[in-house]
Amino acid sequence: GFVMVVGAGASYVGGSIAKDIDLGAALMTFDLKLGGYVTPHFGILAGVQAGVGATWEGCSDTCANTVHYQIPIVAQYAFKDRSQGAYVEGGLGILSTYLASTDTETQRNVSPETLRLSTPVDLKLGVGYRIPVSAARDKAATSAFDIRLGVDLGQFRKLEYNTVVGSVDGDIASDRQATHFNIGLSAGYHFAP
Predict the structure, then answer these.
(1) Residues 140, 143: Cα–Cα separation, whole Å
(2) Which of 43, 82, 124, 175 is the most exposed place for a label (fewest CB within 10 A)?
């Protein structure tokens, strides 16, 4: 049956942009996923995930604003059924992109910077639990409170960096690629009519 999940949460982005270049950011996240369960236990969902927040590592100390977005496609296995109980998920974060920039309104007397990092795909893993909100005595719940812990793992493939001094735009060499991660906790509304 049909499933819709709307959620919000927080995540920490860390690891590396490339070898010897660290990344650190905190984000408030928002996501919308739609899909269906083909059995009471197994389903596939896709949607949009986005986040806004702050960066403290990755630029030359002046980037503050951060935006992240991706298209998640995940398979879920629910231990009880799609409307309640524990579940695990795994899948891909397509076109995962991070943008960081100087906040020129609050950061006076600094050189503006912009940073754009992207990868065609990140690995997504997660665990969650659904607490039914409404259920008839003899039927499964149609809505639930959904809490989820997830991690994305990947390697950035493309880098764009701009300052008043100059710019860099191109692919990150394969021998310089390093792993980044995004670990997040979110809560939301799960609708499964």
Answers:
(1) 9
(2) 175
Closest CA to 45 of 4, 1, 87, 81: 4
Whether residue 34 contacts residue 57, with contact meaning beta carbons closer than 8 Å, is answered with no
Query: Are 111 and 101 in contact, with CB atoms under 8 Å apart?
Result: no
Q: How open is the CA angle 190-99-49, to the nearest 5 degrees?
A: 10
Residue 4 is which amino acid? M
Q: Which tokens belong to 80?
A: 């009880």
pLDDT 10s per residue in the chain (193 long)? 899 999 999 999 999 988 888 888 999 999 999 999 999 999 999 999 999 998 888 776 667 789 999 999 999 999 998 888 999 999 999 999 999 887 766 656 667 888 899 999 999 999 999 999 875 655 666 889 999 999 999 999 999 988 878 888 999 999 999 999 999 999 999 998 8
d(CA 75, CA 48): 15
Global confidence as pTM: 0.88
| Residue 3 to residues 8, 58, 85, 191, Cα–Cα distance (Å) | 17, 37, 15, 6
Which residues face 41 on adjacent strands? none
> Rounded to whole angstroms, how far apart are CA atoms 113 and 4?
38
Tokens 């639930």 sit on residue? 144
